Amino acid sequence: MIVVDSSVWIHYLRNERTDQVRILDASIGREPIVVGDLVLCEVLQGLQSESEARRVEAALRDFVHLPMLDPELAMQAAANYRQLRRLGVTVRKTIDIVIGTFCIERNHMLLHDDRDFDPMQRHLGLRVVA
After folding, report:
1. 79/43 Cα distance (integer angstroms)
2. What is the chain's mean pLDDT, rounded?
3. Would you say the pTM of this structure is higher than 0.90?
4. How far does CA 4 lie from the centroid of its chain?
């Protein structure tokens, strides 16, 4: 399964033709696409109107929805954050370390356009779609 980060969904919804959006377009209907609950929240909170939010909610219902955090994942995400800090890397957003840890622990690939995931790929074994 491919977990798609909010960084890609935002470009997708704005009709921006990034490399990641092209990969997403090519994957829809061919690969299971995951919209995690945290990603869904990030995407929806950035929308300007309720009508736009309803339209996006309806469109995203076509994909697999999964919860991304439980107590065990929270502890592992914190451990991953500390490991990266010991290596001199600070992940800017807690939600990114959670999403990355979810993908690592559940063996999902991540499609993203966010530099916070690069050290997770390099040091923690996060698999990304390229």
Report:
1. 26
2. 97
3. yes
4. 5
